[in-house]
Structure formats: C-alpha cells, structure tokens
Amino acid sequence: MDELPVLNNLCKDLYESVDPQVRHRAEMNLAELSESSECLQRCMLLLARGDYPYGPMVASTTLMKLLGGKTSITSIQKLELAKYLLEMLGQAAPQFPAYLVTSLCQLFARLTKQEWTYQTPTENQSDDAKIDYPFRDPVDSLVKTINMENLEESMLAVQLLTLLVSDMNSAAGMESVNKHRKNLSQFRDDFLYEIFSVSLNFLSENVDRNLNASQLALLHAVLNLNLQCLLFDYIGSLTDETSEDNCNVQIPTAWRSSFTDGKIVQLMFKLLNKLPQESSEKVMTIIAQLASIRRTLFNGTERQAYVQKLVEGVVSVIMNPEKLSDQAAFHEFCRLIARLKTNYQLCELIAVPCYSHMLRLLAEFTVQSLRMMEFSANSTYFLMTFWQRMVTSVPYVRNNDEHLLNVYCPEIMTSFIESRLQHVESVVREGAENPLDDQGSTLQIMEHLAIICRCEYEKTCKLLTQHFDQNANIWMNGAENDVNTAIAEGRLVWLITLIGTAVFGKTTSTSSDAHDKMDGELIARCITVMRFNDNRLQLSNSTVPLKGNLRLEVSFIHMLEQFRRAYIMDQITRASTVYDTLESELRITEESDMLGVIVQKILTNLKFWPSNSELLDLSLSLLKDLSLGYSAVRKLFRLPEVQLLLNNHTADHFIFLGPTIDYQTMKQRTTFYEALTRLLTTDYADDEEMLQRFLRPLTDTVEGICSVIQNNCQGIEEEQLKKIITGLCRDLRGVAIAATTKTIFQILFEWMYPEVFNIMQFSVEKWPGCADVVTPILRLLSEMVQNRQQRLKFEMSSCSAVLLFKETSKIVSIYGDRLLQLPEVSKDRVYKERYKNIGVIFLILKNALIGAYVPFGVFRLYGDSCLQDALPTFCKIVHEHTT
C-alpha cells in the first residue's frame, strides 16, 4: 500500500496548494487515475483510507467520470460499491462537509440509475418467483426513513432520493436513449409516486407546526424532493429545459387523486406564507409547476375549481407581497403568472369569481415591476408573455366587455414606455446598464408589445407621438455636448424601436384604415429624424462616424424592417392608407418610394459604418429579405439607387469591400453579394453580357491576384493579399448562393474556371494553418458543389460538372495533406483552426457525392485519380482525429 501516501499528497495538492503549477501537476497525475486499469481499486482505497475530505472527494469524482465512459466495471462491483457508499454515508455523513456528502450521494444515484434493471442471477427460477432487483431495495428503505423523529437519517435519505430522482430524469451516464427511457418508465411506475406522496404528506403534516432550525432544514429538503418529482420527464420526451414554450407537466393519470381536489395548491400557498424567506423561491417554482399540469388530467368542473384556487393564491401573494422581496422568488412568481395563461383559456379565467380583482392587481403589479427595472429586468419577459397571450385570446371571448383588457393594457404600455424613457436619464448621467445593449432580450419583449399595444391602439399612438415630438425637438435643436441632448437621443432610440414594434403589430390583429393612418404618422416622424441624422453624419478615421450613434442606427433599421414585414408583402392586394400620411408629409406615395427610402438608408450605413459588423449585418439582412420578395425585388431592380449599387460595387465606393476591413466584418460580404445577385437575376433573360458587367470588379480582382502570384507575391504585403483573397471568396460564395438556375451557375463556373480555382489551391498550399483564409475558401467550395435546385445538371455535352469535381478534389486533397502536417494547437483554438475546417471538408465531399451530377465511373475509365485522391484524404483525417 505504498501508493496511498502518494495519492493522498496528490489530493491535498489539488485542493490546498496555492501554486497553480503544483495544482496542474496534481490534476494531470490524478487524471491518469481514471484511465488506469486499477482505477476502481485505487478509488476504493481512497474512499476507505484516504485523508478526509480530499481523498474520498477525488475518489468520488473519478468514479463518476469512470461511470460516464465505456467502463469495465461489472454490475456486481457496482452493487458492492453502492452498498459501501450507503454504509459510509450512514456512519459518517454528519462529520463530512456538505460538498462531500453531495458528491457521494450523486455517485450512489448514478450507480443505481445505471443498474436499475439489473436482476440478481438465480438458477432454476420459476415463472412465479419474484424477480429480485438489488439496486432498488435501498430506495424502499430510504422512502420509509423520512420522518421528523430522526433528523440526520431523514436528511440523508431525502438528499439521496432527491439526487436519484434528478439523475433518473437525465440521460447522463446512460448507454442509449432507449435504456434511459426504460429506466424512466420503470422508476416512474414503481417508485416516483410513492416518493412524491411521502414528500407531500410530510409537508402537509408539518405545515402548521412550530419547527426549529434543523426541522426547517429537513422541510426545505423535502420541498426540493417534491419539486424534483414535479420536474420529472414523465413521458420520456427529453424536453429542452431552456424553453418556456412547451411547459405542460405530464402528470400520469394514476396520480390524479392527488391533484384534482386542488388541496395541493392550497398547501403550497400556505407553505409560502408560513416558511421563512429562503424557502420562497422553491415554493414558487412548485406552484408554477402545479399551474402547468396538463389540462386533460381534469374534467371541466375540476379544472375550473383548480384554476380558481390558483387565481386566489396569486391574488393573496400580490396583496401580501413580503415574500416577493427576494429577487429569485419574484422571478418565479412572474413565471407562475405567465404559466397561468399558457395553460388555461381566457374564458376559464374570466369565469373565476375574483377575475376582475385579479386582473386589476396584476395590472398594478406589472406597472410597479416595470418601474423597478433593476429588480425586474429578467422577469419582464414573463409578465409581458401573460398580457400578450391574454390579448391574443380576446377574439375567442364571446362578450368583449368581460375581459377588461382594454382598460389595463394601455396602462401597461404607458408604464413600459415611460419607465424606459426615464431610465435613459440614469444611463446617461450615472452610467447605468442599458437594456438595449441586450438586443436579443429586447426583441423578445418587443414581439409581445406588438400585440399588447394594439389593444386600444389610439392611446398608444398618442403617447408615442407626444414623447417623440418632445424629444425630437430637443435633439434636433440642442447643443451637441449637452446632457439633455444626449438624454433626448437615448429616448429617441427607444421610441423609434417601439414605433417599429407598434407598426408590426398590424400583422397580429385586425387592422383598420384609421390604424394604418396612425402608422403613417409615426413612420413619417421616424423617417424625418432619420434623414436629419443621415445628413449630419461625417466620415472619420475611426470606426464610428462623427455625430454617429450606433444604437440610433440600429433602431432605424429595426423600424424599417418592421414596416417591411407589415406593409411590403406579396399578399397585399391594395394600396394601404399608410401612404396617405407619408405622401402628404414626405412625398412617399407608394411602395416603390418606400423601398427607395429603405435602400438609401442601407447605402448610407454601408458608406458611414463600414467596420461595424453588427450594423452591416442588420442592414444587409434587410436588403436580402427585400430581394426574396416576389414583387418587391422587381420594384427594387428598377430603383436608380439599386442600379447605382449594381454598377458600382467596388472598394472605391464602399470601404467595407476593401482589404482594410477585419476578417470578422468581411463575413457580411457574402450576404451583400447574395442580395445583389438575386436582384440582378430575378428576371434574367439570357443577358450574359449583363452578368459579365456585374462581375467586372471581381474579374479585376482575380486578374490582380493572378498577377501577384505569378510575380511570387512581390510588391504586396502578405496580410493584404490574404484579405483580398478572403474577400473574393466571400463575395463569390454570395453570388453562388443566389445562382440557383442552371444557366446562371454555368456562366459563373465558366467565369471562375480555372483562375479562381488556382487561387484557392495556391492559398491552401501557402497558408493551411490560417483559418481566416482557408475557411472562406472551403465554404465557397461547399456551395459550388451543392446541387441546389438541380443547377449542376448540365447538358450531356458539357464537362463542367466533371471539371468542378476535379478542381474540388485537388484542393481538398492538398489541404488535407497540409492539415495532417500542421502542429497541434491549444484547446481554445482547436475548433477554429482545425475542427471547423475538417467539418467543412466533410460537407464538401458529402455535397459532391450525393449531388448525382458527376459520373464517377468515368474517372476510372479514363485513368483519372481525383476520386481516389479525395476519399483517402477523408479517411486519413478521420483516422487522425478519432484515435
């Protein structure tokens, strides 16, 4: 046993040493333990005789890692280990630190889960004999252990059961999904309801008792056990826990008696009032799960009584909000409110006697929450979800006067608008966090507001107009460095974003001509401010133009995008009255004029913000979306701005097309050329000269690169050459994506062959380790060999498909050979510099092989080895990176 002191020292160094090198060395040595053939014996040695607490802790984590791989531990060994763990915990758990107890309990749970279906082997077992499942026996004992008389044993039993239920609910450590689902169903049918019932009875028996600190701790642990039972995946659906969309709790029908009378709901609200603040979050989460129980578990009468108890409980919480002072509990309460409408229909909520009282309290609660931005920032989404779903359900209510949403929704919109405008002052003066920085969360909430604001839309429009006029006047006439001007500018960002959201709301409800005119008034104000802003921009040496505000520009694009979604659609058959106001104020008489405004804004952004990837992405995505519309793209093509763009897409006119831009921003060039090519080829009438004219700037680039390569790259910096080649490949990939017809793709290929392929071959040979260059090349190849819409089904007399595959095979083979010779890279760079490109290589070969456009038998007939060169490259890469 000479190795025990060595192992103990390594464990101690891992957890106690302040020297990072010592810790790293200990970690590496202990990592070898899990790969050793004697891993189990050494871990058992550490569990039994290792220095407390680090020895058992390392043994526990190592065994968990061992169980997660393809281990050679037999079921008998696992059974012995599980028994030893139970014995060890039973004897010494009170002396162990909490983290060690948790780790050992998790190990026990994993062992039990993996061998849940294991049966004790017996000889000559008759059909009537009871099957013995040795790993299940401890679970029965643990369930019967829970009581208030023996706190230590009960606490350990509850912790073991909680971790077992939680681990059973996860597929971690299981060989297959099928085995996981089999365990899931057997555990659910045989044990889960008993565990849930015991936890529920325990809570019910002790809710009115005066408990000491130890008893309260046990009660809190039982609450957690109860919650894990309600979070269980009863139907084995492997649901995404990050999503709130599918939140039904599929309680088995056999459990029905525990829920239909609604007593469990009353119990949980009672526990919420009785228990101390630290238990509030857990209880709120349980109630949110109870509000999400599938509707089919109840009949109509039971469901109405159940929802009434939920509503009464919500009312009691709002009227006595002390428990909501904890931010986590507040967040869970907001989730509960959202679930209330997700699972129940508006007519069922209206039928509750205290509906009007509840709605008034919820409206007041929402208004107060919106004004406490720092406290409720992450919870606003759930509150808005409730109101959005309430408004969406209004058309299905027979009597519109009953729902009262027309009374409270305007109050909520007013509160949201005013709270955000007031917060701008804190952002400017105090440097507070700006919610607009998180664009994703902002857009999520805006999707809800688009529906809510359409309830009494006149009031929302009046409020937006009032604030917009006031702040636009201050901003346009104020001094540049004045704080009030900065505040007004920040408020305009919010107002323009909200106006775009309100206009998009047209698509979510039945709109009238009066509402369209209001939209026109709002959009006219935004366009006026947008033109004023564009006229004052000045180019500078930095990435931000003089007098430029990125958030303001993003809000303009958002507004234009929402207008496009609402009013520029192929389904619109008549002119909208939105253009009446736009015509009187801005001379925008029809859709073509508005398209001109949008394109002009996109061109302005390309000119003044060439280095800002975020704004370029938003602007070019808008241009791409416009190019996808059947009628819009034809109107776009006739615009003088678009004709100017199609004839002048060079670095002289747009800086972001030049080599001075960083690699990240260059990604937007693909979207740019995809949109331009789609605009050009929408009504393509075999005008090859037009295409060649469009490709002329790219032709000049190709000729320039070929000349540099012939001169051995003299007279140009290597980094500049890399960027020029990268930009070319990104441009051509955009063109290839939009070249969806056989004729256009044939012209593109003939234009590229052979010069562009030679450039790509040169680049992968010269810079195989530079992912910024190689990845765009491989992405272009992947697009070229993809038989999108049968565009590669050339005529029998054409050899283009064969030539394409030959060039592709050549580049893939050369890069594959270079890749295998490159040195290893650190873990933080390995994906970008190795795995990403390997994945693209596999995609190239897949697209080429399944495209059904190359007669592969021809290669062997004519002695061409390009197919034989490509496939071994694939095999070598697979072998190198899987061994």
What does it look like?
With 883 residues, the chain is an all-alpha fold. It folds into 5 domains: 1-71, no CATH class; 74-120 and 132-238; 252-403; 410-589; 659-883, no CATH class. Helix 3 (39-49) packs antiparallel against helix 4 (54-67). The protein starts with a helix and ends with a helix. The model has no long low-confidence stretch (mean pLDDT 89). Its main location: cytoplasm.
Number of helices: 41
Average the pLDDT over all residues and give the rounded result: 89
Shape estimate: globular
Distance between the termini: 34 Å
Which percent range fits the helix content? 55-70%
Q: Which structural class fits the helix and strand makeup?
A: mainly alpha
Number of domains: 5
Short description:
The protein contains 41 helices and no strands. The protein is mainly α. One of its GO terms (molecular function) is nuclear export signal receptor activity.
Outline the secondary-structure elements:
Elements: H1 3-16, H2 20-35, H3 39-49, H4 54-67, H5 75-92, H6 98-114, H7 137-145, H8 151-168, H9 177-206, H10 213-230, H11 263-274, H12 280-290, H13 300-319, H14 327-343, H15 346-350, H16 355-371, H17 373-376, H18 380-392, H19 405-430, H20 439-452, H21 457-477, H22 483-504, H23 513-536, H24 550-567, H25 578-586, H26 591-608, H27 613-628, H28 630-637, H29 640-647, H30 663-666, H31 668-681, H32 688-694, H33 696-710, H34 718-738, H35 742-752, H36 755-766, H37 771-784, H38 800-821, H39 827-850, H40 857-861, H41 866-882
Helix pairs in contact: 1-2, 2-4, 3-4, 4-6, 5-6, 6-8, 7-8, 7-9, 8-10, 9-10, 10-12, 11-12, 12-14, 13-16, 14-18, 16-19, 18-20, 19-21, 19-22, 20-22, 21-22, 21-23, 22-23, 22-24, 23-24, 23-25, 24-26, 24-27, 26-27, 26-29, 27-31, 31-34, 33-34, 33-36, 34-37, 36-38, 37-39, 38-39, 38-41, 39-41
